[in-house]
What does this fold into?
Amino acid sequence: MAVDTIPVEILSEEQAKAELQRLSAEIAHHDALYHGKDEPEISDADYDALKRRNDAIEAQFPQLVRTDSPSQRVGAAPAGIFAQVVHARPMLSLDNTFSDEDVQDFVSSVYRFLGQLPDSSIAFTAEPKIDGLSMSLRYENRRLVTAATRGDGTTGENVTANILTIKEIPTELPADAPDVVEVRGEVYMAKSDFLALNAQMEAEGKQAYVNPRNTASGSLRQLDPKVTASRNLRFFAYAWGEMSRMPAETQWEMVQVFGRWGFPINPLTERLSSVEAILEHYRAIGLNRPDLDYDIDGVVYKVDRLDLQARLGFRSRSPRWATAHKFPAEQAFTTVEAIDIQVGRTGALTPVARLTPITVGGVVVTNATLHNEDYIKGIGNSGDRIRPEEHDIRIGDTVIVQRAGDVIPQVLDVVLEKRTADAGPYLFPKTCPVCDSHAVREKNEKTGKLDSVTRCTGGFVCRAQAVEHIKHFVSRNAYDIEGLGTKQVDFFFESDDPALMIRTAPDIFTLKARQERSLTKLENIEGFGRVSVRKLFEAIDARREIALNRFIFALGIRHVGETTAKLLARSYGSYAAFADAMQAAAPKFGEAWNELNSIEGIGEVVAASIVEFFKEPRNLEVVERLLGEVRPLDAEAPVVSDSPVAGKTVVFTGSLERFTRDEAKARAEGLGAKVAGSVSKKTDYLVAGPGAGSKLDKAREVGVQVMTEDEWLALIGG
Ligand code: IVH
It folds into this structure.
């Protein structure tokens, strides 16, 4: 008997779960047809039967009620209510390039990585960068089953019901399409539709929307497909995720195939081989930009051949085979009303200009970063002048503000003619505005120059540093605790009630227990309802086990970003091994210190900063308390478990002939090996090419297996 005909009373839990999943998708599909597009496919009676079956199963198995269940779908609702979708392949972002030289560098780097002379033999596609929201559309057996937003790149939100209302997106693929297809592209709102919508809002006396992108995003991330349908969103296909079979061998062909399957593809895309031709196309698209009915913010270049894309591979967040060439930022004039100082997690004092609100490229700007004391004076990071001396930034000045994409707006220059007599030079504070500790500019040991950043020396006594630390801890790429945003962290941090306060990260995990023992109930406090409190505690509990790299990143060690945290997690495997090694490395010499420095991608400054972190008793105490509450999971074994070099440490030395050094490294890492920069006892293989010197000697001395490039290739299977 097929599961969908088994009477509810005799369904097993497993079958019920599968049924609820099926019903949720099925009902969403019919909802969308009914609300949005053309003709319904089934009668009202059949539709009601589906809903009743869903309700009956949920009544029998209340623990299985899905967040995206039709029973939970009631009109518009706040964000965070969509079911999560783990992408079969991560959705990455693109590196940005801004100038012609950057583009030349990108193209050269592709040739260099592949070990070829830059002879214009490699073709690139050049396609407009649509300013919308990226979307992954999954088809199984040629039927659309899930539409998911990008989210953090790994996990997105299931917005299938809303996507089904977009007329331009096919719900079925032709018979020759593979069984599993994930088409990726951009959902956007046409400028003309946006203007019409705003005209209508105005006529109704309602507030206008800010820009097409945000409006498109808002239209998708709400629960009523009718609203999405009324917004007339559109789509361009330009990429893909999982494919059970590849229908083409180049980027260009892939997109053409999508076009044949019924997806809109962008007509301004071209396939070009020389940097000159690429730049010419970029300028042509730039000239065309005002006449297009959709916003674009640059041109994306991609290596056309997919086999070359595969060889080039990825950096941590973006492909090596593509880049986004952004259009110049937009600028506007306004005045500086005040200069405030913000104190960051590491104590850095950042001056922020409060501006008379001004629209720059469609977005209202009220703040701009002034970076540091030198920037205000017109001096750049390298110590050189970036503006004439009298062009220092003062309160009351008229300034040129620039905004590029999502980057924080900047103050570019001062209009001297408009400076008033009472505007005196800005005096950068000598003490922290939050804790009053001395603020200093450290001397860079290597260059002997003053660091451009002024830092509060208050450390743990500085409330600003402490609260920023917690914000970092819960942020998206660290602990990612939903329901603990900036506002909530400020509230818990400021509270003096023992049942509410969060002063250090471990306090987050004792909050629930403290609440249970106390009479102050969070749910009675404005801004926290019963449901949101329950969800918050669930979100916190869900993080009691966490990936080691996130744990390390969350510690907020200076200079340890996400990439470094991943390297550390992979190299040491477990938190205990990592912490022990950092204690052992404390004297900054010896085996443990050398090992830390031999990790490719970790330099001396970073290594020293990590070791210093583990020397500070206050840090150790906080980590200790944290470990009483949470468990960092051991780093996952490399995914490629059948690779002969998974988990092995390899060092490349001498000149390689079959690969460039970068490609050899990327290949090895792709197979789960660690690539180190120097030989130690932990090295498994030294791959030595002609001209190998001291590393080869060292390997022989400590008994590391030495092989030629060909032997290495044979080992990894060519
Ligand atoms: S390719 C792995 N092509 O830009 C590469 N992205 O900054 C995946 N975007 O998240 C992206 N137009 O939302 C690609 N023609 C285009 C694009 C495009 C717009 C967006 C996309 C992506 C972001 C990256």
Remarks:
- The longest helix spans residues 13-35.
- The two ends are 49 Å apart (CA to CA).
- Residues 92-94, 127, 129-130, 134, 150, 186, 238-239, 300, 319, 322, 324 surround 2-(butylsulfanyl)adenosine (CB under 6 Å).
